[in-house]
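Fill in residues.
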């Protein structure tokens, strides 16, 4: 016999359930009063600096948007717009070297589980190798009960 769950009980359970994002130090502000403000504060590999307006909005959103005519329609430019528009590829990146590759067998020695600083430094040393030309990264993102969410798994493959 199928018993339908009481919606009121379900809602109470949802509200009391522990959520990882409750422990985030940088809370997401999802109000419709102000537009999205990117959280980026540093810009590695920059050709141009971050827009000063972005810093002002991050520091004090209310004061920043008081001087904007239509705050709900305001949009910041992508922080890496200049870098993306002027990206130049190396000649070797245009070479078609398409070879059918079979997946490696699933053996424990093919994997490195990074769970501490020492193993992370081992991974970094391998990634810095001059022999590596290709790298693939797959990120798994958890966002249940959270708009911002967080990365819960990162898989890296390099050739």
């Amino acid at each position: 016999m199928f018993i339908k769950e009481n919606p009121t009980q379900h809602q109470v359970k949802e509200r009391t359930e522990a959520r990882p994002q409750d422990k985030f130090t940088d809370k997401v502000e999802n109000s419709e009063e102000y537009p999205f403000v990117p959280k980026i504060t540093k810009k590695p590999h920059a050709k141009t600096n971050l827009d000063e307006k972005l810093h002002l909005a991050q520091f004090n959103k209310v004061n920043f948007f008081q001087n904007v005519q239509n705050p709900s329609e305001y949009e910041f430019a992508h922080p890496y717009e200049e870098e993306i528009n002027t990206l130049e590829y190396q000649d070797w990146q245009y070479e078609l070297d398409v070879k059918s590759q079979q997946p490696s067998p699933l053996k424990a020695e093919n994997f490195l589980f990074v769970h501490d600083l020492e193993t992370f430094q081992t991974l970094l040393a391998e990634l810095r190798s001059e022999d590596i030309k290709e790298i693939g990264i797959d990120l798994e993102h958890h966002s249940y009960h959270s708009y911002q969410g967080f990365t819960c798994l990162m898989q890296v493959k390099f050739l």
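Strands lie at 135-142, 150-158.
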